[in-house]
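INFO  loader      accepted 1 record
INFO  loader      residues=212
INFO  predictor   begin
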Amino acid sequence: MTAWLSFLVVFLCSWSLRDLVVEACTCVPIHPQDAFCNSDIVIRAKVVGKKLMKDGPFGTMRYTVKQMKMYRGFQIMPHVQYIYTEASESLCGVKLEVNKYQYLITGRVYEGKVYTGLCNWYEKWDRLTLSQRKGLNHRYHLGCSCKIRPCYYLPCFATSKSECIWTDMLSNFGHLGYQAKHYACIQRAEGYCSWYRGWAPPDKTIINATDP
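INFO  predictor   done
INFO  writer      dumping tokens
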């Protein structure tokens, strides 16, 4: 009976710890433009290999990538060969498939290594919208001096001319919403920031940054 109770205590403790770790990765929603502007490295790449490294309690996964194109980070690391991430998804590790897809990957550079995770923006390339691809090539860069402010409940108002109000959270969560898929917040010639729909030329008469 004593042995059974000991086993039960150990099992419950392990179960509770596992649940705690699973819940540990919580990410604040971020617009793709902010993910782009806040990243050291932004690349399009295909994963061609992976290796579990013996770093930390759960290990680190090292993905070998074939870089197809770099959108941000030329001055930091012109060519990326490896992407590092936590081996455990509970610690925000990213799971990428080998020799299957091209990915858009954003990350930060630390001690000469590129790290990414669930809170970074990564996506299969063929799932990106045309507007997001154009944003990566040019438009997001034009808005890195702008501020995208999330709106979680109405009413929401811009408090400065450099703000765009992001309303996807009212009906969606994170970068799956319509604004995230089809809009960039860019700085106009007049000095203010406003949403720009990717498939139409910028309308310089737009002054209401809360209404894309």
